[in-house]
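Thread: Modeling a multi-component assembly for a lab meeting

Hi all, long-time lurker, first post. My supervisor asked me to bring a structural picture of a complex we are working on to next week's group meeting, and I have zero experience with this. I have the sequence lines for every component (591 residues in total). Could someone generate the structure of the whole assembly? Inputs are pasted exactly as I received them:
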Amino acid sequence: MSTQTSGRLLVRAAGPGVTIQDAGRCGSLRFGVTPAGPMDERAFIAANQAVGAPRGAAAIEVSLGGVELVTSGETIGLAIAGGDFDIRLDGARLPCACALPLEPGASLTIRAGRSGSWCYVAVAGRIDLPPALGSLATHTRSGMGGLEGRGLRAGDALPLAGLAPPRGPLAIDAPWLAASGAPIRVLLGPQADYFTHEAIDEFLSARWRLSPRSDRMAYRLEGPRLSHAKGHDIVSDGVALGAIQVPGDGAPLVLMADRQPTGGYPKIANVIGADIGRLAQTRPGEEISFVAVSIEEAVAARRALAEAIAAGVRLRPQGGELSTELLLSANLIGGVADAYGSLEPE
Amino acid sequence: MRYPAPRCLDAGEAALVVEFGDSVDPAINAGVLALDAALRAAPLVGIVETVPTYRSLMIHYDPLALGRAALVAHIEAMETRGVAERPPRVRWIIPCCYDPPHGEDLAAAGESLSLSPERVAALHAGGDYRAYMYGFAPGWCYLGGLPPALAVPRRAAPRAPTPKGAVLIGGGLSLIGADPMPTGWYVVGRTPERLIALERDPPFFVNVGDALRFEPVDDARFRALAERSAGGEIVARREMLDARP
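Re: Modeling a multi-component assembly
Sure thing. I ran the full set together rather than chain by chain. Output:
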């Protein structure tokens, strides 16, 4: 086995909106810097866990536009998790959450599948690019992070370092990624008092449709127009992930990973942290509804999700029954190395 | 109006808005900056990041490490003890070229204000400013202290993307831009300084709460300074205002 630990992941094709993301850019919000980071952090972490990478390590965020990846030289260990995308290795279908070795000459294609808007390709190793303000998260509007601050396109070569042995193909079990049609939970405020009671009732009872004009910055909602009680101009204040802002036209939008850190429209509510990833996976045209919860419920849901994620993903043979011997927690690297001793580095 | 006591509002379960008042006002902003400085001087475990704005401080926190009640109690205790409000300790002298072709919208702003373009430039250059907040895009810094005669409303429709380093006025405030963006404000001049430069250490140097003045420069000087700024130098001059005995 080669002892080479660097390699290159080559982009043979990429739709719009395929970017490199890590856990996000923190510490510079006060200077107007957008945090960026993954749209669905739950799936992003699951992919990193499955390759034994740190949970915030840079990965490729794949949009509905899809991507085709190849490599030259070294076999690269990859893991994919997110929506129900159509994933093929040299044409053979793989589970939508899987770990796989990408060998030289083989081609990995990821296309929009039955549901979900984003998936993540994590690398057993690291994407070796220079960080901007301490992060590799791509924010295309400001041209910051990732590869030259832009989305990936055909012909790009991503330098990789610290390659670890590949695993699989194996299916990833990450129970917290299970799809759910439950309403998205929100905490009302911080400017719910800028809206009439009728507008708040309407916001919580309406069936909203996600607009095709949605992107990493904002998910626009189509439905009733919400009336402001005190006008729509507030003095700009901070904007949290998941803030639901209602500008003058009364059409709400949810501010997502690429939000500006400050903004000037009243925010009727804020999506709770535990439901942001689920909202992110909604597709344009799909319906969404909201339900108000208390801060205690929001924190409990956040804790439950954090605990589920901390327990780690499990890997099993694709299509196979869940066997006790192969029920491995991927964040226990030792356990994985033992079971797949033949894949250990020389 | 400044509230008798700050209001704590939830922006989801992981961010708290501490609101000091309902308007853009130096006294309200002073409260925001004082709490921000106090929290940064003695960080509380669980606070992730703070974002000062005109009239409120957003505190991003990890609710699994720091409960809301404990955070609010900490802030209230600090407020009760009296968080020190102090005048700015640093003033930046920002070079600004108001001459053609840089003061693109001086005439348009002047028309709206019934002032000559030269008067708009002179009034702007005579102002005593304070950095209130960043926003809109990386390195875009909003300034209080605009002379009231320059309080032009924002345009109904955005203008074409601003030049790099645009100095703008709108809605009773001034603003230093970074990268080009479309905006409803008026470009009165342009600075060769870069408030954000990722390759420079530090990438940002004007902190919220700092004082600023503009120093008019001609086009030749603008170009010379822009070259130095592009090379990674900070061309704004720093004055220390802290004259403690």
